[in-house]
Specification:
heterodimer; A: alpha/beta; 3-methyladenine DNA Glycosylase II, Chain A, domain 3; TIM Barrel; Rossmann fold; eight-stranded parallel sheet; 17 helices; B: alpha/beta; eight-stranded parallel beta barrel; two-stranded antiparallel ribbon; 39% helix
Amino acid sequence: MALTGLQIFKLLPKTNCKECGMPTCLAFAMALAQKKAKLEDCPHASEEAKAALAEAAAPPICQVKFGAAEAEVQVGQETVMFRHEEKFYNPTVMAVSVSDKLTGDDLKKRIEEINDLQFDRVGQRIQVKAIAVMNESGSAESFAAAAAAVKENSPLAMILYSDSVEALAAAAGPVAQAKPLLGVAQAETAEAAAKIAKDHNCPLIAQAESIEDLAELTEMIKAAGVEDIVLSLKRPALKGHLYNLSQIRAVALKKNFRPLGYPTISCVLEGGPAEQSAEALSMICKYSSIVVVETVQKWAILPLLTAIMNIFTDPQKPVQVEAKVYAIGEPDENSPLLFTTNFSLTYYTVESDVEASRVPSYILVVDTEGTSVLTAYSGDKLNEKVVAEAMKKNEVDKLVKHKKLIIPGYVAVMSGKLEEETGWEILVGPRECSVLPKFLQEVA
Amino acid sequence: MPVPTITDSYKSAVNKVTLGATQEAGGTRSKTIEIGGAANVVYGGAAEQAALRPVVAIDVLDSAPADWPEKLKEPYKEVLDKPGAWAKKCVEEYAADLICLKFDGIHPDKGDKDADHAVAVVKEVLEAVGVPLILWGSGNDEKDNQIMPKVSEAAKGENCLLGTVTEDNYKSLTAISLADGHHLITEAPLDINIGKQVNILASDMGFPLEKIVTYQTTGALGYGIEYIYSIQERQRLAALSGDKMMSQPAICDVGYEAWRAKEAKLADAPEWGDPADRGPMWEAATAVCLLQAGVDIIRMRHPKAVQIVKAFIDKIWK
């Protein structure tokens, strides 16, 4: 947890030597607290002060990375309980399980199905990012074979999930280059599992029945030389699990309790696809860093990936699209031209309704700093001059020859001025986007 | 190893609200519903500090819907123009905790039906089911002010949840709701400050704060849900800190919003999976997501979605 200026001051030499460039040690301490200075600037800082500050500067929840190169994902390092307090940093990693009971073509097919769980949504690619190989066969060889097959057939990050240290050792070696997340280390296997993780330089899942046992376990693993740890609670019922996840996040952040200051992994492997999807969704919202499901149904996965996208957006920063002209379908010089704002939600609603109309059209996106039509208009970020400038900059007169612009119904009031400013004919569109298809079909 | 305890001593709680009136209380409902009461954040503190079990209100429209996707209409196809039978089906087959009677048909653009029609529908539904009712206007201020007072009167003494009132249009519905003994829904457009303001306005007219349920509007999954998600979390925190103007339970409208999403309604999109499951899952996912932020009443539409959400609620509240 960050120290205050005064707490830092107590650790400084208090000589006011000015060698750091600040007039006094107190001023330097304040600058440190605001992260505007570095402790290295003080040539006389004690080892004790350095250690205390380094400890305080470490994030309350560690960041853990797994997967190699393109497949690398990172989890943890969260700083708040509620997204409005700042934001959630590392989006939950969605993983899907592969049983090592599968072999040959069945195994390959399953892996391909998981690779294929990716979607384009509002201009972004969202996807399942990891495959969790589950040691359900009880055999170390089968586990190793399945892990090797995943490495060969999937570009995704890998999680190896077994209760058996022997199986883990057999599987981890050959795929170590892919930097899999290894699991699971339990109290009785902690040392052996930690050794495997350390030898292969991979992060490790610590698993226990209660958060008290889990805290003890992570200390053991850390003592064995593994720092990259992911927390797992053993087969909990949903309710208890969600309370535990909240408690882990809360003690890590509010009490700076290091033994639980790690990312978490949850498995939802039972029940139908809808049931899994609902449970996984609650864990995405409530603090699970990695969620493993068994279903590969696209209709069950798409809502989860969408929720991750939504919950992890920065609440302080409206999501924007690039301000330019977008061609929907294959428009030509006679096609309608509409404008809207660069707030992504606004743009994609308009885009989807223009698409639905099946009338090829151009959409001119005007930069309103990511605000919606009405908000932009009332904040004067949207007026006839802004629109006229965007039209000029994007040379819309070269795209269409009809000199007609369709404007959002909510800013009908600006049509007169806009007509004067541009010399174009202004057509007032509907207020509700859903009526847009009908409107476009009538105009075109 | 001992783990430190989190000692968030919240000094206050969300109001508890009871909807519906049985015969002893001057109504005709066969049961009442109590909601609200959360004394901590979602999954925070001890389990007994959680809100009372959230409830699902299934939408019944006063007139057959013109613009519902086929997949949504299908389970109701025989009852879409029979509000009484529709409500009965929702309660008996789909275990609706409440019925939300939505008066779309009185909207000037959606049928422009009159007070006689609306009153007849209320009576029909009151007769058909024993669960408490939500009576929700059309969203057209002028028409709602004209018709909803009659609707309210027709359900006098039943302790319904009546709405909605907004910052710009609250006087007539607040007054009639008070006179007829109903609870009131205050609506704000994704703005927590306006949400508080409407509560203050209703309260200034003498409407008890304890009989208000807030509607901060709803965004579907993928369509702005993050805004409402954070507003519900902030509303809960405000209630826990003792803000009496923000201590009301919350209602959200998941059915209508989720089925506007193309992921729910597009039949022809194989890249998103089977539409028979995709629509209901989108609706259920929107509801489950909002439950994580803290809502008390969820308006829903598709029976499959209701089933998924109720199964989830059972796991947390049983």
